[in-house]
Amino acid sequence: MVESVQKLQSKHWHVQRAHFVIASMRRFADELRTEGFIVDHRRAASLTAGLAAHRAEFDPTTVVAMEPASRAGLTMLRRSGVTVTRSNQFLTHPEEFADWADGRKRLTMEDFYRWQRRRLGYLMDGDEPVEGRWNFDAENRQRPPRDGRNHWPPPPVSMLDDVDQNVLRDLPATVWGAAPDGTWATTRTEALRRLQHFIDHLLPRFGPHEDAMLVSSWHLAHGLLAQYLNVGLLHPREVCDAVEVAYRCGRVPIASAEGFLRQVIGWREYVWGLYWLRGEAYMELNELNAQRPLPPAFTGRAPTQMRCVGTTLQTLHDHGWVHHIQRLMILGNLALLAGLQPLAMTEWMWAGFVDGAEWVMGPNVIGMALYADGGQMSTKPYAAGGAYIDKMSDYCKGCRYDRTKRTGPDACPYTTLYWDFLARHEVRFARNPRVAQQVRAAQRLGDLAEVRVRAREVLGLLDRGEL
Description:
Layout: E1 2-4, H1 5-9, H2 15-34, E2 42-44, H3 47-58, E3 64-66, H4 71-79, E4 83-85, H5 94-101, H6 109-120, E5 124-125, E6 128-129, H7 162-170, H8 188-202, H9 226-231, H10 236-248, H11 254-278, H12 296-299, H13 307-319, H14 324-338, H15 342-352, H16 358-369, H17 386-392, H18 413-424, H19 426-429, H20 436-443, H21 448-464
Parallel strand pairs: 1-2, 3-4
Antiparallel strand pairs: 5-6
């Protein structure tokens, strides 16, 4: 097992992201030793250097490794003469995904998800979905509770020990964010405890407010399990089995069970398959020619007066995590509207989230959030003004900006930039059936010229860290 100094220094990692990976690795090495394995666990300049040092010391006839979660890692293993064995951290191998995708004009997630349900047998009655429907999204888009209170119990917390302190001492000085507080498990036992907590206390109420955002709760009913799946502390089949059992026993309503399984066997596996199918060139796509650098608000060099952005970035600082709507409709939406450079945004989110990885952030940011692939992944850009944020959160209450205004110094930056975005890309989206109506609405605005002037002012303020 190799801890790569090069990897740790390659990005501006959130401290909880780096700590989670290294602490999990060290504890796993200790568990293996306890079980009687001989473990060569070393720090090296790089993974390649660590492998070379191992070979020089032990002279193995063969080195075997499980398929890694990145193209660069797989290339390195093959060039180093390592025998690669199939990964079991996903339910759909990239070869199976490629077979499913072969000959299809559009690779829609809904089609893939239904194929998965039938193939894997989750929430099925024979060849048909339980309760006669594949999709309960309509029931899972409720606004947040009006009282603004935190209705969701917090995740379990583990005590930090000497292993954690040693890991933190070994991390580079460039890490950022709040130090770990025990939220993220670094052993399989603790990961299983968090899975059980989710099944018992959060999954029953997961569905209705899965798209909601509240100042009072940083996690709501979300599972907080993806990072454990990504490093193998949990396996997707055992997570899905637990959801299936909870539904069949009547402990979880169908909308919550289906909504969560959609994320695991649908979205997670779909993004994994797309990552391998699209290849390296996908990461360089920039169909909308977005060239703006990351703003100081994102890089920690300046605060922001936008309450939605400030709340989301504070949660990211404190926990190395925010949920999918905050990623897509707060951070991703602002990046789309402002024209932030896609690869820079991808790298930032990869390094900043405890569940971040190239395979996760590439398709999600390049394709889903920023439409930089020109619609290969989504049929429309996920652009929205302040009205959407006000509908799905309590962020707008007490904000410095007014989400109903397009112009003027107190106009909501999202509202201003939304209309400017539609005008800026009018030719591209005028014939897109999912967004053409909004484009026409932008064309009819009597104050569109003033909106576009204000948009330039907003972008300047964003660049200077004054928004």
